[in-house]
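## retry 2 of 3
previous attempt timed out at serialization; input unchanged, resubmitting
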Amino acid sequence: CWSLNPGSDTLLRAYSRVRLDPESRRNIQADDEGVTVTTTVRRLLSAAETWHADGANSHVVMGQVEYLGDGDIWQRIVNACNGQHGPRFFCTVQGRADSLLWKRKYFAHEQEVRLLQIDRAWRREEPAPRIRQVRIDPDTLFTSISFDPRLQPFEVTEREAAIRRAGYTGAITRDPSYQKILGQLVMLRDWPDP
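## retry succeeded, writing output
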């Protein structure tokens, strides 16, 4: 899943854990840290072509999630079940793709885009694989990477060095979302005391 919302604190906290040790100021949940990666639709679709070649028995579908009221979602299910394919609509590639792009309005802040790989055939007798691993080239797929902005600056520097040692040569940006901002307000007029 991807998001069109570049600065969602809710998504950041859902996928990244930072708990600072009071003495060292180091994250004590480093294994649960997330990173933010940016990309483009073109780059995602280009990467999906290679994933499709690896699993040619499937379709790759990209779509923006629709955020609907509970009644609207239920009505879509009813309409599909009363349509041409009946309940088997949800066994078709189109039916599975459509239904995976419906979400309750409560989550609309996510502005989610999903890249789905859906088997062409519905195989009820075979268990679905838990995770399908796909190969990526981070330098080609990502336009930039940034680390959790709640980390201390020294930890961000350590993470940047580690990712460079791992071979990433692309852009790394620093997320200023949690930086303290000092400002000065200059009053250009005299105001009476409150």
